[in-house]
Amino acid sequence: MKLGKFNILLIAIIFMFGTVACSAKQTTESNPQSAEQANTINETTANADELTPEPGAKLLVWDGKDGLPFLTEIAKQFTEQYNIPVEVQEQGAPEQMTKMKTDGPAGLASDLLVLPHDNLSEAVAGGFVLPNDFFEEETKAEFQETAVNAVTKDGILYGYPRNMETYALFYNKELVKESDLNSWDDIIRFSKTYNDVGAKKYGFMMQLNNFYFAYPFFSGYDGYVFGDNNTNPEDIGLNNAGAVEAMKYFQAMREILPMEAADATGDVKTALFQEGKLAINLDGVWNIGNFSKLPFEVGMVPLPKFPNGKVPNTFAGVKAYYVSAYSKYPNAAKLFARYVTTKEALLKNFEVTGFIPARKGLENEAAIKDNAMVSGAIQQFEHSIAMPSIFEMQQVWAPMANALELIWKGEDPQKTLDNAVKSIKEGIATLHQ
């Protein structure tokens, strides 16, 4: 069964924002603000002073490498305003989930996490996160419904939405024309003429063993993860006839990317692109800010059609802040989560990192409206589906990563995918024992 599209809901994230006024609540004397500070923070945090931080509060925040530049800066501002020290540490989402299981009970975990929405089911089941209760009303009013729903589990709002994200094709305009990106066959033809492996010059590169980025090959050939719009884990479509055909095409692309799947890492790919040695880079919209600062002009276009004429879907997700259930200072943590998701904060985050805000009311901001790469992201959102968020999705990533590596090496796609689906089903079965 085919997966449903995000359709109009996701594209609305960028240019169909509504204008929602936030009612200011009375502030207390415990956290006085100057008029200048109040203007900077805007009325969206006017009620924040009614949430009194715990005495002696100090916070630890975990986020991935790409989010650190903004968080480090905004943490200093938060400390200046509320006199609450904030430490920011690099921890990717998978590492955060792993560490919560051990560091949480030991009192060593962070006070705030930054997670993609597909981790929420596991986080709730593990008792890792607290509901977004104090700012629930404001969050629901000020953020896109799609984002709010993504960070809600069983009717309870947990997250403080930060950004929506997907991926598409970044390209170096000095090396390749947009007309060479009309189809995957066009990309292959261009790469054959551009490649110089000895000089580490490549026409195209992607993370080959990461199912998140490889999913468009499946969706482009009618493969799918779970049935019933990703809600039925008993129906897995990752080894159907279309998925096998997709992996045959994927496998054939080794001709233009002659390297081991494990060697095509995000760091290697990014470095080559920044050095002007990689012409076409399949990567996430979170790199828009970074790639906007390069000495050459970068474009961004949606993923093109496959030889069967079908335009693939990408995964799309919502990243959000979550307050740890193990935090000794939950009030202070909630205050920080609110602070870093104000209009001003998220706009600054976009300017620093390229994260496309999930908040309403930013569509006319020059930094967003005038960025051509964001326009490419908008087009890709039209061909994106929400990454499966059911608990069983966590059993998909490792078997599919292993399958992609084997297929890239030349193993039989049908046999390899059959084994991967078997492993996924076995993993799911253990969840329900």
Structure write-up:
The structure is a single chain. It contains 19 helices and 15 strands. With 433 residues, it is an alpha+beta fold. The chain has two domains: 17-165 and 317-370, 3-Layer(aba) Sandwich (D-Maltodextrin-Binding Protein, domain 2), CATH 3.40.190.10; 167-315 and 385-431, Periplasmic binding protein-like II (D-Maltodextrin-Binding Protein, domain 2). Strands 3, 6, 13, 14 and 15 form a five-stranded mixed β-sheet that branches. The chain has a four-stranded mixed β-sheet with strand order 8-11-7-12. A two-stranded parallel sheet has the order 1-2. A hairpin with a 2-residue loop joins strand 4 (152-153) and strand 5 (156-157). Helix 11 packs across helix 18. It comes from Paenibacillus tianjinensis. Belongs to the bacterial solute-binding protein 1 family. This is Maltose ABC transporter substrate-binding protein.
